[in-house]
Automatic annotation (TrEMBL):
Organism: Oncorhynchus mykiss
Protein name stated in the entry: Dedicator of cytokinesis 1
Domain DOCKER: 832-1229
Keywords for this protein: Coiled coil, Cytoplasm, Guanine-nucleotide releasing factor, Phosphoprotein
Annotated Low complexity bias: 1257-1277
Length: 1325
């Protein structure tokens, strides 16, 4: 049992496929599918609604809000489980319509449904049916959007409503009261609308405090006929609920809860209705005419009520959209008592209005007339009272029974009280209205003894099956014992009205009474009036006779003639049933033409009705009927026969022909649809007959398609054949599908390829092609594949297929919101691609049969398929991803697993290539998927462990620094893509420049290697020779972190002398010319080389000195930090680094800086460099604490054999420290423990070197030296902590594994432990 507002869940664990371990838990709500859909839709809309609010898109925000509120309320109603079946069906229709419209309005995916409103299952639906369902759903929604955008307001038949706000009731009644407002025609003396009911408390406020300041109602369905009314009044009646007389104060002994007339207020609203007056802010005061004035009202001379009135154009749906600030979900809707002039399709209504008109009751033994109270209830034929089917007014809920107003001692009370009765359609024929009469006394003690003294009743359905007639009914008043009056079986077989009594031959005018069983007919009288407003119930016996024509075929001709006399409004309400009856009559009498002309004329009559302006909104209903519901396959023969007869006998049948001509458009639509229906004959033949017919049909189809003839008919026929073959009840179909595959598959493919995207048939042909492929099983593919490879046409077929698939994937013929159709197409294409791939491997891969273009097309198709937008699930919302997994779990999960596998494989390759930074980026993406989308925590754990290993590798594993080379190809002898262009190459591991150049020249054996570093002139560029210029370059990057391991900017620096040469100091006039190269793509990449553009700049001698000091300090810092983090590192690199800096023998560079820049002459000539000079001094001062740490660590780790060397190192450093701190100040680093375990260089730099003390750039310069080696440490310019770390190790540690470095190490230390002068670390020569 479904409980209101509660939801039960069951859990389903689904193992992830393809061998991946772990489970995925899916929570499945155990509720109605529609409720589940509403819940999912609300979640999706709510997210969009929030974005609309944030984006201040108010109009759209309000529209979505209204739709969300509607769905929430309707969901609650469905979950309540209290709705009758017909109301539940109607509500489901409204819910699905709202969801579909809202999805389109918000650019979400289209939902396709079956005839019951359930979402179509694509796996059990044929491709053709799925396509047609998409078409129909899309058109239906587009039609509704157009109606919403352009609301049709015909001048002759406008639809509008009166909006009323009740501001206050100025009248101290002293008891609870009912305020009933309605529209009234004073000329015709009849109410034209339902009541709007507000319950007022005795304290002078609305009884429902939630409605305070929100008493609003809209009187809808008004039309042009109402504009023509001479007068329209707004009437407000007040009925107090309490004592019989207000003047009685002894409340303990008085009867309470009696409905008594109190007063009425009337206002002429004709000018407002006709639009002559329009002021929605104006408050109108309407005075009361009271029937019960007492001293309680003496405080006010002018009792009345205050209201505002405004005319609103449109029906209720349009009003809610156009005036959301006035009419919202809390606004009461009082409908017109009667149908609106424009009956919108889907406006399902089943209301019966019952008015208590008047009565006359004998006083009996009493001295005064009775105080009669009428109680109205609804019972079924078993005597069960129907609950909540009576509504006293809009704004109020359904009630169990209705009690009338009591007129005090009035013999002939006139009530004119109207109640709306809304009974489920399936219960109407079993229901009746019951009226009981009781005398009410003002004294409570007497009132309790009063019993029901009489009863009247009336059945809602007449004996002939029609509904109770509109108008007044004079009911018979029966008397009997009170208990007997409660037994419906005692009176239901009696006549209910005086008309029925007369039909039985009994007089109604005699003075005496008639005894009928246990009841006696009283002389009392009671009249009611009824009005049926129903799209389900007909009051017309002629229409009913036609709808039930099989029950009495002898009256069929009479019923057909009478149909054309039925009022049009009654016919259009039953349009589909009437049309079905007409065509059933025609088809079930196919051997006779007796009824053909009458059916044709009736059809013309109905089409003429639809053409009437009053009913033109039923055009979509007629169109839908023809397209979806009309199935009389042979009707065209009879329709054309009658039409032909009218044309041939035009002189005699002028009137009939004229009417037929006006209806010709729809007559032809019926004829054409009937001919299309002939296709369904195919499934009626047994399998052996179809085997004969199908080859003939496919030959005809092929002929017409190849000649581009009758394309629409061909597509329609092929689609219908494929749809029949998809069915499970038509016998074996394998051979039939094979015939279509052999005869038509390639022809249909070519038709699709040649057809423009703007063709209205492209979608149908693609659906037919997809259906063919889908209905091909493994046998069909095997049969098709076995025919390949023998002729060139087979290659052409595959080429055409691959091109077509790629084109359809890249430029889908279906809208983007047709997700189910697109997914279906993807599944079919994927299966076909995999089947055809086997053919490629088997027949077109070897050297003799290799088809380059075919393989090229295949790979282009594969890339297009994998990268198509509809498969990029990570770009979709979580709700959409969930829907796709539910609808296309196989395919979507396949793509998800494929992506997972690809990512894992890519990560493994990055790991193998030691590109851990790239691997971490992809690992983070996977981890996010595992954690937030797939909830696969086992995979998440494995991914995070792998990431942790990559981070550790970055810090600890030594990676060889790759060398980069700038290569220029000059001369017209090179191919055009190389000619006079420069490229950046990434060298192999440990590849020297000489080896790289040799490898390059093997590709161009006739090329000359240029000896200079200067770019060539135009003479070389225009010569016919081939010249190659190779330059070793370094990396430039300003960023730090994981993202900088891939480079796109590189530098080459060369010294340039300016001014007079100073023999004692080479630094004073040595400038640096630096060229920056920017590659088109980052290296490493797909290729090991990319083309570049270059920009040259110059670095002054002072800036060069600053960079040199900066790089030296960073190298010391990195070395120290590595030793702090790893006590097992060898000491030799640290020894060489420190010795090269602190040994006085190599301090020439330091001294040269002082000689060149720290002089009065330089400072006087270059006052603009003062800030840079201060920075250089600061860099020299910062070097001391770095060196101090290095010397201390060296002392802790030095062996006894090298103790003399360390002692000399300490002595040299002491002298250096004293000098620097005296001249340039003392700098202090944080404690060692604070730096231990941090990342190399980057963290140290952040607290040791303020930004204003950092160099202009991190660069390098290659000096001109005999061994072509960098002239100072750090000249590689590798700026990330990882790459600089790697470079340091390469310069000072990794080469210990080479023979060259071992020999050099042997030379470095003699018996005194003194290093070789060739290892100079920290200064330029």
């Amino acid at each position: 049992m479904m409980l209101c507002g509660s939801m039960y869940f069951k859990k389903q664990r689904r193992a992830r496929g393809n061998g991946v371990s772990g489970h995925k838990e899916t929570v499945i709500p155990n509720e109605l599918p529609l409720v589940q859909e509403v819940t999912t839709t609300l979640r999706e809309w709510a997210s969009i609604w929030r974005d609309l609010y944030v984006g201040d898109r108010r109009e759209m925000f309000n529209s979505v809000r209204d739709m969300i509120y509607d769905l929430i309320e309707w969901r609650s109603q469905i979950l309540s489980g209290t709705l009758p079946q017909d109301e539940l069906t109607e509500l489901k229709q409204r819910v699905t319509s709202k969801i579909d419209y809202g999805n389109k309005y918000l650019d979400l995916d289209l939902v396709v449904r079956d005839k019951d409103g359930n979402i179509l299952d694509p796996d059990s639906t044929s491709t053709v049916s799925l396509f047609r369902a998409h078409e129909a759903a899309s058109k239906q929604i587009e039609d509704r959007i157009q109606e919403e955008k352009v609301y049709i307001r015909h001048q002759s038949t406008p639809s509008f409503a009166l909006f009323v706000t009740l501001k206050n009731v100025v009248c101290k009644i002293g008891e609870d009261a009912e305020v009933l407002m309605s529209l009234y025609d004073p000329v015709e003396s009849k109410f034209i609308s339902e009541n709007y009911l507000v319950r007022w408390s005795s304290q002078g406020l609305v009884k429902d405090i939630d409605q305070l300041h929100n008493l609003r109602s809209v009187f809808t369905d008004l039309g042009s006929e109402d504009l023509k009314r001479e007068k329209i009044s707004f009437v407000c009646q007040i009925v107090r609920v309490g004592r019989m007389e207000l003047r009685d104060n002894n409340t303990k002994k008085l009867t309470s809860g009696l409905r008594r007339p109190f007063g009425v207020a009337v206002m002429d609203v004709t000018d407002i209705i006709t639009g002559k007056m329009d002021d929605e802010d104006k408050q109108h005061f309407i005075p009361f005419h009271c029937s019960d004035l007492t001293d309680n009202m003496s405080y006010s001379l002018f009792p009345g009520l205050w209201v505002t009135l405004k005319l609103l154009p449109g029906d209720i749906h349009q009003i809610r959209k156009d005036f959301p600030h006035l009419v919202d979900r809390s606004t009461a809707v009082a409908r017109k008592m009667g149908f609106p002039e424009i009956i919108m399709p889907g406006d399902v209504r089943n209301d019966i209005y019952v008015t208590l008109v008047q009565g006359e009751f004998d006083k009996g033994s009493k001295s005064t007339p009775k105080n009669v109270e009428v109680t109205m209830t609804v019972y079924d034929e078993d005597g069960k009272k129907l609950e909540n089917v009576m509504f006293p007014g809009a704004g109020d809920e359904g009630i169990l029974e209705y009690k009338s107003v009591i007129y005090y001692q009035i013999k002939q009370p006139r009530w004119f009280e109207t109640i709306k009765v809304a009974i489920p359609i399936e219960d109407v024929n079993r229901s009746h209205l019951r009226f009981t009469f009781r005398h009410r006394s003002s004294q409570e003690s007497k009132d309790k003894s009063e019993k029901i003294f009489a009863l009247s009743f009336v059945k809602l359905m007449r004996y002939d099956g029609t509904t109770l007639r509109d108008g007044e009914h004079d009911l018979i008043v029966y008397k009997a014992e009170a208990k007997k009056l409660e037994d419906s079986s005692l009176y239901l077989n009696l006549p209910a009205t005086k008309v029925e009594l007369e039909e039985k031959g009994l007089s109604t005018t005699g003075k005496g009474t008639h005894n009928l069983g246990n009841c006696t007919i009283s002389k009392d009288s009671f009249q009611i009036a009824t009005l049926v407003c129903s799209t389900k119930l007909t009051q017309n016996v002629d229409l009913l006779g036609l709808l039930k024509w099989r029950s009495n075929t002898s009256l069929l001709q009479q019923n057909l003639r009478q149909l054309m006399k039925v009022e049009g409004g009654e016919v259009v309400k039953f349009l589909q049933d009437t049309l079905d009856a007409l065509f059933n009559i025609m088809m079930e009498n196919s051997d006779s033409d007796t009824f053909d002309t009458l059916v044709f004329d009736s059809l013309v009559f109905i089409i003429g009705l639809i053409a009437d302006r009053k009913f033109q909104h039923f055009n979509p209903v007629l169109e839908t009927y023809i397209r979806k519901h009309f199935s009389a396959t042979l009707a065209y023969t009879k329709l054309t026969k009658v039409l032909k007869n009218y044309v041939e006998n035009a002189e005699k049948l002028t009137e009939q022909l004229l009417k037929a001509m006006k209806a010709l458009e729809y007559i032809f639509k019926f004829i054409v649809r009937s001919r299309d229906g002939l296709i369904d004959w195919y499934c009626m033949f047994p399998a052996d007959c179809r085997e004969i017919l199908l080859p003939l049909m496919t030959e005809q189809l092929k002929f017409h398609l190849e000649n581009q003839e009758e394309l629409e008919a061909c597509c329609q026929l092929l689609s219908n054949i494929l749809e029949v073959l998809y069915r499970k009840d038509v016998g074996p179909t394998q051979w039939h599908v094979q015939i279509i595959m052999e005869k038509l598959l390639r022809t249909v493919n070519r038709t699709v390829i040649s057809m423009g995207r703007d063709s209205p048939l492209i979608g149908s042909f693609v659906a037919s092609m997809t259906a063919t492929l889908r209905q091909m099983d493994d046998y069909h593919y095997t049969h098709l594949i076995n025919t390949f490879g023998k002729m060139r046409t087979d290659v052409d077929f595959l080429m055409e297929t691959f091109i077509m698939f790629k084109d359809l994937i890249g430029k889908n013929v279906y809208p983007g919101d047709w997700v189910i159709m697109n997914m279906m197409q993807n599944k079919v294409f994927l299966r076909a691609i995999n089947q055809y791939a086997a053919v490629l491997n088997k027949k077109f891969l070897d050297q003799t049969n290799f088809e380059l273009q075919l393989w090229n097309n295949y790979f282009h198709l594969a890339v297009a398929y994998l990268t198509q937008e509809s498969l990029q699930l990570e770009n979709f919302s979580s709700d959409k991803r969930s829907k796709i997994f539910q609808k296309d779990g196989y395919q979507a999960s396949t793509q998800g697993q494929l992506k997972d596998q690809l990512y894992q494989e890519i990560i493994n390759f990055f790991d193998k290539g030691k590109m851990w930074e790239e691997a971490i980026v992809l690992g983070k993406e996977l981890a996010d998927q595992y954690e937030n989308e797939m909830f696969d925590f086992e995979q998440l754990s494995a991914s995070l462990r792998k990431q942790a290993q990559f981070y550790e590798n970055i810090v600890k594993v030594i990676r060889p620094k790759p060398d980069y080379f700038a290569v220029g190809y000059y001369g017209v002898g090179f191919p055009s893509f190389l000619r006079n262009k420069m490229f950046i190459y990434r060298g192999k591991e440990y590849e020297r420049r000489e080896d790289f150049e040799a490898r390059l020249l093997t590709q161009f054996p006739n090329a000359d290697k240029m000896k200079t570093t200067t770019p060539p002139g135009e003479d070389i560029k225009t010569s016919s020779s081939q010249c190659i210029l190779t330059t070793e370059i370094t990396v430039k990057t300003a960023r730090r972190g994981l993202a900088t391991h891939r480079m796109y900017q590189f530098q080459y620096s060369r010294p340039v002398r300016k001014g007079e040469k100073d023999p004692d100091n080479e630094f004073s006039n040595m400038w640096i010319e630096r060229t920056t190269y920017t590659t088109a793509y980052k290296l490493p990449g797909i290729l090991r080389w990319f083309d570049v553009r270059s920009v040259s700049t110059e670095i002054s001698p002072l800036e060069n000195a600053m960079e040199t000091m900066q790089l030296t300090n960073e190298k010391i810092s990195n070395m120290v930090q590595r030793h702090l983090n790893d006590s097992n590192l060898p000491i030799n690199p640290l020894s060489m680094l420190l010795n090269g800096i602190v040994d006085p023998a190599v301090m020439g560079g330091f001294t040269n800086y002082e000689k060149a820049f720290f002089t009065e002459k330089y400072q006087g000539d270059h006052p603009e460099d003062q800030e840079k000079l201060d920075k250089l001094k600061d860099l020299i001062a910062w070097q001391i604490p770095y060196l101090a740490d290095g010397v201390r660590i060296h002392g802790e780790k030095v062996t006894e054999a090298l103790r003399p060397f360390h002692d000399r190192l300490e002595a040299c450093f002491k002298q250096l420290r004293e000098k620097v701190e005296k001249q340039y100040g003392v700098k202090t680093l944080p404690a060692v423990d604070d730096r231990r375990g941090t990342r190399p260089r980057s963290m140290l730099r952040s607290f040791t070197m303020p930004s204003q003390q950092r160099p202009l750039s991190v660069a390098s310069v290659n000096s001109i030296s005999s061994d072509n080696s960098p002239s100072r440490p750090g000249s590689d310019g590798y700026d990330t902590h990882t790459e600089r770390h790697t470079h340091t190790q390469r310069d000072t540690h990794t080469h210990t594994h080479t023979h060259t470095h071992t020999e050099r190490q042997t030379r470095l230390f003699d018996k005194w432990g003194r290093p070789d002068r060739t290892s100079r670390m920290g200064t330029s020569r």
